[in-house]
Specification:
It is a single chain. It contains 16 helices and 14 strands. The chain is α/β, with parallel strands linked by helices. It folds into three domains: 144 residues, Aspartate Aminotransferase, domain 1 (Alpha-Beta Complex), CATH 3.90.1150; 41 residues, Helix Hairpins (Orthogonal Bundle), CATH 1.10.287.1970; 240 residues, Type I PLP-dependent aspartate aminotransferase-like (Major domain) (Aspartate Aminotransferase, domain 2, 3-Layer(aba) Sandwich), CATH 3.40.640.10. The chain has a seven-stranded mixed beta sheet with strand order 2-8-7-6-5-3-4, with helices on both faces. A three-stranded antiparallel beta sheet has the order 10-14-13, with helices on one face. The chain is globular. The model has no long low-confidence stretch (mean pLDDT 94). The structure holds pyridoxal-5'-phosphate.
Length: 473
C-alpha cells in the first residue's frame, strides 16, 4: 500500500528545515517561523493553565505534597489524583478504558453541562486524544474482510486530519457541502443528495459532524442539530460528533449546545434509538494540552457488544498516558469558588476566550481588507478559513509543478516570510476555490507578526506574482 504524504506534512518538513537553517546562522528576512497551520496552541506561545501544571507537577514529584509554598487546593487535588493511580504513581498503567475516577468525573461534567441529562461511566471511554478515539470507531465500522465498502458522510470543508484517517481505515469519504453563504450551515437537502449519490458506491454507516466547526468556525443552533439527528435516525446512520472546541464559542448570538442534550430533549423515538458518539479532549482551546494526549468519547444507544469491542480495541492501545488523564480530570472538574486557585484559573480561561474572540474579529477584518481575500466571520473554534483569489501566474506555475495552487501559496509564504498557514486543499474541497487555514489562538503580539508578514507577502504576490521568487520545486 502506497503512503501519500500530505501537503501539511510536506510543509511541516519545510518549516522544520527553515528553522534548522536559522539555527545554523543562515540569514533570512525573519527571525523565526510562526506556525499557525494547526491547533497547537502552546507551540504558538499560548500559556498553559497554572492549576493544571501545578497539580501535575506535584503528581510527578509527590515530595511537593509536603511543600507549604504550593497552594493547599493544588496539593489536595494532587493527593486525590495520586490516590486513584495504581501504586499511587503516574508511572503506572491504567485500565484500558481509563482511570475509573476520571471516567466518573467526565460523566458528572457531561451531566452538569447538559443540564441534568444523565451520563453513565460505562458509556465513557478515555483515549489518547479524540483522534485516537475516532480511529477506534472507524476501525469498528470498516469491514475488515473487505466484502463491503463502507462510507462516512463528511462535511466539505472537513478537518484536515479526517481524510487521511478515513483513508487509513479503509472507509469511503462521502462529501456533503456546507453552505458558506449561510454561515457554513449544514443543509438537509444536501445531506440527502450526498447520501443518495453514495448509495451503490458504498454503504454509508455514519455522518461526521464538527461543531464548533473545524476549519469553518460555524456553531450549529438547536434547530440545525435536531435536523441532523432526524436525518441520522431516518437513514440509520451513526452520529459522530467532534465537540472538542465546545469551550470556545464567541459569536454573539450562539452558544454551544451538545448533540446529546438536544437528542435527549427530543421524542423517545430518537433519544432511545439514535446512536451517537461524541468526542472531547484536553486539546480544547482553553486547555491546549495537546501534547499530554488524552480525550474521551461518550457512546449513546450503542449495542453492548459494540461497547465490548471498543473496550477490547482500546486494550490494544494499552493505556492512555496517566498524566493526560489527570489533566482531563482537571478540565472536567476545575477549581470551584472558594478554592485558592479559583480566581487565577478563571482569569486564565477568560483570557484565552477573550484572546480568541478578539483575534477572530481582528483577523477577519484584516483578511477582508486585503485584495483578493474574503473571509466569513467565525462563531467558535480556533480557525479562520479565508478564500484567496490567486493570480493566474501562480495557478499556472502550480500546475507546472504538479501541486495545488494553495499549497504553492503556503510554501512561498513560508519561504519568504516564515509564516506557516494550512492549505485549503487538505479539507477535501472540490469547488475549485483556493483557501487558507489559520489558527487564531495565538498571543496578540505573535498575531501582529503573522498579519504583517502575511499582508506584505500577499500584496507583493498580487503585484508581481513571480518576479521576486526563487524556483519553487
Ligand atoms: C478535527 C479535530 N478535532 C480535534 C482535534 C484534537 O485532537 P486530539 O484530541 O487527538 O489532540 C484535532 C487535532 O488534530 C482535529 O483535527
Amino acid at each position: 500500500m502506497g503512503i501519500r504524504v500530505s501537503p501539511q506534512s510536506r510543509l511541516q518538513c519545510f518549516a522544520a528545515h527553515i528553522t534548522d537553517q536559522i539555527r545554523l546562522g543562515e540569514q533570512k528576512p525573519f527571525k523565526e517561523v510562526i506556525d499557525v497551520s494547526s491547533g497547537d496552541f502552546h507551540r504558538a506561545g499560548m500559556k498553559p493553565i497554572s492549576f493544571v501544571r501545578q497539580v501535575l507537577a506535584v503528581c510527578l514529584y509527590p515530595e511537593l505534597l509536603k511543600d507549604k509554598h504550593v497552594a493547599e487546593d493544588v496539593r489536595r487535588r494532587a493527593q486525590t489524583l495520586l490516590g486513584v493511580c495504581a501504586g499511587d504513581s503516574v508511572g503506572s498503567y491504567s485500565a484500558s478504558a481509563g482511570i475509573p475516577h476520571v471516567r466518573q468525573s467526565i460523566a458528572e461534567f457531561i451531566a452538569r453541562r447538559d443540564a441534568g441529562v444523565p451520563s453513565y461511566v460505562k458509556d465513557v471511554f478515555i483515549s489518547s486524544g479524540s483522534q485516537s478515539a475516532l480511529k477506534v470507531i472507524f476501525h469498528l465500522m470498516a469491514d475488515v474482510e473487505g466484502k463491503t465498502q463502507r462510507g462516512v458522510l463528511t462535511p466539505m470543508p472537513c478537518p484536515h486530519t479526517l481524510p487521511p484517517l478515513l483513508d487509513m481505515s479503509g472507509l469511503t469519504l462521502v462529501p456533503y457541502q456546507l453552505k458558506e453563504d449561510r454561515g457554513w450551515a449544514v443543509d438537509l437537502d444536501e445531506l440527502h443528495r450526498a447520501l443518495n449519490s453514495a448509495r451503490g458506491r458504498c454503504e454509508p454507516m455514519a455522518i461526521y459532524i464538527s461543531n464548533p466547526g473545524n476549519p469553518t468556525g460555524h456553531v450549529q443552533d438547536r434547530k440545525s442539530i435536531e435536523e441532523v439527528i432526524e436525518f441520522a435516525a431516518a437513514e440509520r446512520l451513526v452520529l459522530l460528533v467532534d465537540e472538542v472546541y465546545q469551550d470556545s464559542v464567541y459569536g454573539g448570538d450562539r452558544e454551544f449546545i451538545s448533540y446529546k442534550k438536544v437528542l435527549f430533549e427530543m421524542d423517545k423515538s430518537f433519544s432511545e434509538t439514535v446512536e451517537l458518539v461524541s468526542f472531547h479532549s484536553i486539546s480544547s482551546p482553553c486547555m491546549g494540552e495537546c501534547g499530554l494526549r488524552a480525550g474521551y468519547m461518550e457512546l449513546i444507544n450503542m449495542d453492548p457488544e459494540v461497547m465490548h469491542f471498543i473496550d477490547i480495541l482500546l486494550d490494544t492501545y494499552i493505556s492512555t498516558p496517566v498524566t493526560g488523564q489527570l489533566a482531563l480530570d482537571i478540565m472536567v472538574n476545575p477549581p470551584k469558588p472558594g478554592d485558592a486557585s479559583y480566581d487565577t484559573y478563571t482569569q486564565e480561561v477568560l483570557l484565552t476566550r477573550a484572546t480568541l474572540s478578539h483575534n477572530a474579529r481582528r483577523v477577519q477584518e484584516f483578511l477582508n481588507d486585503l485584495p483578493g481575500m474574503s473571509c466569513q466571520p467565525a462563531m467558535g473554534g480556533i480557525y479562520l478559513y479565508p478564500h484567496v483569489h490567486l493570480p493566474t501566474e501562480i495557478t499556472e506555475q502550480a500546475e507546472m509543478l504538479q501541486m495545488e495552487a494553495d499549497v504553492l501559496y503556503c510554501q512561498m509564504l513560508l519561504e519568504e516570510e516564515g509564516v506557516f498557514v494550512g492549505a485549503g486543499c487538505e479539507h477535501g474541497e472540490t469547488t475549485g476555490q483556493h483557501r487558507l487555514r489559520l489558527c487564531i489562538l495565538v498571543p496578540p503580539n505573535t498575531l501582529d507578526g503573522v498579519l504583517t508578514r502575511l499582508g506584505s507577502f500577499h500584496l507583493r504576490l498580487l503585484d508581481k506574482p513571480l518576479l521576486h521568487r526563487k524556483n519553487h520545486t
